[in-house]
## 1
Amino acid sequence: MNIFKSIAIIGTWMLASPAVVGAGSPPAVLGKYLKPDVMTKGEVVVVVPPREIGEYVAKVEENARKNPEWFREYSKTARPGIPLPYHENLGLSKDDYAQYLKLWSQRETRVLPNGNVVIRLEEPKTGEWMVRVSGRGSPISLLRYIAEKDIMQSPNGAMKRIEEIDADPKSILGSWKGHEWKFEEESSLGKTKENFAIGKTSDGKRGIIVYRLQEVSSTGRRLYDKSLVIRFALAVN
């Protein structure tokens, strides 16, 4: 799962209405984090590092342009969402790199305007589940989890279950674990990637939902890139 410099996060702090009678038992991959038909209020925020980190990022980007093949191969060895391990080819001294990591550790979340959302786990059809999200999170409402096949169905196609998430504390969202589904399709026109993940922070205090849809042309030009993360107070123990 690709994590990016600025990432939208929906932080949820309140639980609302009781469950509506009639919903079946949710699959564990969703039911461990959300109760059926219980609404949760949230806020959309963005995670950003201190402005000073830009000086070091610029140095790395400059060296990446000078040696693109090396940088591309070296980047493949890094874990998603975590600063690249130190190497002299990055264009940073060891002191620079240490300062970069220090600034990275100071990243913070900021609430975006009009960021209020409501999250609700529903079963529109037997064995078919959806995480309905209002407002900025509405693209997630288009997904359907098909319990029998363990897939997340999207308008683009079937998102298949991939490796479990075990995020490093240095990742932009911090340490958390969860489940992830991915759709990827490539044609003569370009490539489409779509990811959905759900889990909880390592301290067990909050749930997290991550969604990203990317479209790139055959020439490598980015056509579309929508990213969302939902962080919410767990509705279940």
## 2
Amino acid sequence: MPTPTPTPNPFRRLPGPLGWALLGLLLFLLPFALLREHSYVTIDDNLDVELTIPYLLTRHHVALDYRATTVVAPIMNGLPRNALRPGLSGTVLLFGLLEPLPAYLLQQALVRLLGLLGMYALLRRHLLPARSERRLAAGLALAWAVLPVYSMYGLTLLGQPWLLHAFLNLRRGAGRWPDWLLIAAFPLWSMFVFVGPFVAVALGTLLLWDVARGRRWSWPVVGGVAVLLGVYLVVEYPLFYSLLVARQFVAHRLEFDLSQLGPQGTMAGLKASAQYFFMGQYHASRFFHGAALLAAGAALAYGPRNRWRREVGVLLLALAGLALFCGFYPQLLTLVQDSIPALRTFNLSRFHFLTPLLWFVVLALSLQVLPQKKLRLALVALQLLIGLGMNTEWLNTMRELVGRPKATEPNYQAYVAPALFAQVGVAVQRLSGQPIAGSRLACLGFPPGIAQLNGFYTLDSYQNNYPLAYKKAFRPLIAGELAKSPLLRSYFDAWGNRCYLFSAELGKNFRVGAFPARFVEDFAFDAVAFRQLGGRYVLSAARLVRPARSGLALRQEFSARNAYWHLYLYEVQL
């Protein structure tokens, strides 16, 4: 047997291109370090929910308590703990050690740093190994590290290069213990429901592709997949136990009907597919794929004709196929969801979490064959600029740094507004005569996750998974408002992750700021059902013009310097 080629250490020369890339990442992160609580943190699907979950799991000491009777008291009258993310996670560890904002900023820095190093290792070992390509690899690694991502998902996306690097080493037969360690560590800081099954399918497809081309079946890769899924099985124990052994509760997701949430038809599917192909999906890093497409086009025009065409052609076809599948997925699901109800609960279109890495592989393979050095560097620079230009979290933080913030995009301190909510807490304790934990409230015009971050116990919440029985118990509170708005009715009935107080006059505006002041003329609220659910107070970012008609009485209003909100506290009157 031939002696395996020793694996080079891609980090042996830190000074030079990789050192400059690390310096570039440091400069990227510097505004967050300087501004701290005045930094902008992505709000939608992030600050309004994701920071709250690990914070509450750790503060209430239930992160690793997977008993069926364990609940997280501040959420929805006691949300079953096993409805939330697992506790065996790097994210939960950081939030257990630090306050939410420092934990978030440190997580972002670590995730982007590891993403940069992982992409550099992948490129130098497998895609751009020549010494003359170090600058290209370092530039692409930096471009990868600054992509717009949800860093609360840990290494789910930016950590994928490490995983691909390890599996390609196993596929070559040159796998060593670090490769197995990388595979085993990945589930400890990533989200199974976003990438786990899809990575397994992708690797299985790669193995079948190898066999079809006459290569030997790679048992090390099979073993690596087994290790990956085995560790996920341990990390996601509550999820697998619920799926395979005993279901703890019937999830609200069983009533999902995606066909009601968006346009249907061929043109709608093609439009969505084009969005996936050229831009991607916002949870999985939305950025324009123009640099990769330009590089592939230039390589076709100027590069040598060899197996490169086949490799990149297959990747582009795969990306186009995935885009079509994701674009038409809601309509495909409509055809089968009644006969296979379980498909409602699991989003098979999450293959899109793999596509950013595939686009970077297309870009790297194209750079391999382009003869013009300046053109190759220009394409890397273009990708870097695209990533920076579409990273709204970084751009809004830069606007804060130069003193030109967007009025509709508040920074962390303004949005979480601890001083403002402290006033509310004092008022609630004075009115109720008991600690905050003894009073249940609901929020109108702003996400209840912010109230939860400030120590309040809310009946409403934004959750990907919660009991269907609770959704049905909550609906009477807002039935009057849902009757006014078909849009809100389908939003709640066919989806319902946002189990919120709704107002037809506010629509889906869950960011009602202090300026300009907003008023709700007629709030069709069932105060009796609210009281039966345990609620006592409604905290609103909009003023109710006729609160008595809703069974409510205004107790106090609150404002604070630099807070994004002006809040009104109403108490149920029966």
